[in-house]
Amino acid sequence: MKKIILTAFLCLVTSIGYAQIERPKLVVGLVIDQMRWDYLYYYYDKYRNDGLKRMLREGYSCENTMINYIPSVTAIGHASIYTGTVPALHGIAGNNFMINNKWSYCCSDSLVKSVGSTNSAGKMSPRNMWATTIGDVLRIATDYKSRVFGVAIKDRAAILPAGLNANAAYWWDQEAGNFVSSTYYMDELPKWVQDFNRRNHTKPGYDIKTSNEGVTMTFKMAQAILDNEKLGQGDVTDMLCVSISSTDAIGHTYSTRGKENYEVYMQLDRDIAQFLDVLDTKIGRNNYLLFLTADHGAVHNPNQMAAHRMPVDGWDVTKTTNELNAYLKNKFGVDKLVTRAYMNFLYLDHDAIGHAGLELGEVRTAAANFLKADPQFLYAFDLEESAIEPLPEPIKERAINGYCHNRSGDLAVILRNGYFDWPYKPDYKGTTHGAWNPYDTHIPLVFMGWNIKHGETSVPVKMVDIAPTVCAMLHIQMPNACIGNAILPVKDHQ
Fold this sequence. Notes:
alpha/beta
């Protein structure tokens, strides 16, 4: 009898202890694709008071948040934000990379089927990612009672943030004109998603991502998830991962300046204001923790810069690849040893090198030495040797962190500042990203809501610090490959 009483007492004490842990009802991660840090202020006077201005007015802004790897692209950014780690450890080495010696898309999964359409747009999953996310460890901490969802127009922007054990992720199928998922998460779309798709269907083939409508559609779906899945209404913390993709598509097409970019950020501001109002009403003003950040920035258009005497030019990737292949053939007697270039990485044909009886390291060294002689590159190096290359420390750190063995390229080039990774053309209107430079790697980071007091800091912060900060606030373990640290100005400012 005494043993029964003692056991009951210990259970009661344990339950009381757990009950005393304060957590918000809901965590919302909001990633704005291609949002440079300076967009917080470049458009500031045009923002409404209840959107981004409200976030800056009520929230805590980390003004010196940087990406600490290369290349700075969408898939890596979304993975790194939520895992708290870098490509070397989470395995997402680009939007595309090598998997088992095959060029692959980051979320492609032949083991799953599309749900919500009959084409291949849904054959996606997070299976290629090696690390857990905030949502994964939140579910573990609550014995899988927490519910975690991801939503975006881009598949990778919905799938990777939600994590390996999400309840669901939804992304847009352009061909079908509606949101879809995959059998990784479910066998069929919930009835409420089917109803949502019927009400919000677009013409098949219409690329909603390239219009402001894509911003609004994403927030509409996010609100539908809140309503129908009753997120933030239970006894444990839930999580919603929202990514806005249209800002990136429009930026790529029209650049960082001009009418189109202005209009999409005004739309974003309006939709954020409405979304915050929904969160206030449904979850409670002080019951949700929200963070806003970006997966990468973007360089200013070269023609715009050239008009103001700024040094710009473009890298003819094809020309460099052909010249390097000619050099390597002359030296080693094997044709086309360079198979492709992705961002600033070049890939060698390992099979051809092996069949020819060549040493991979010797070919890499020869290729790097050839590239070093090209004046358009500040640096060229073997990625396996990044740690011993005479690189400035910020570039060295990013190269080491961005190199994923057997998935990343063999060689890296660092372009002159302001250079693009394609030929410079006088009629080019758009932009790109992927470099180590601040225009690509300086991103916004604003926390708002539950236990957040207004303020800002210029203390150096890294993208990988976001996940451990959220986890520290929730009193849960950080993701399993996390290398970041809790941002003390945020944690201690609660």
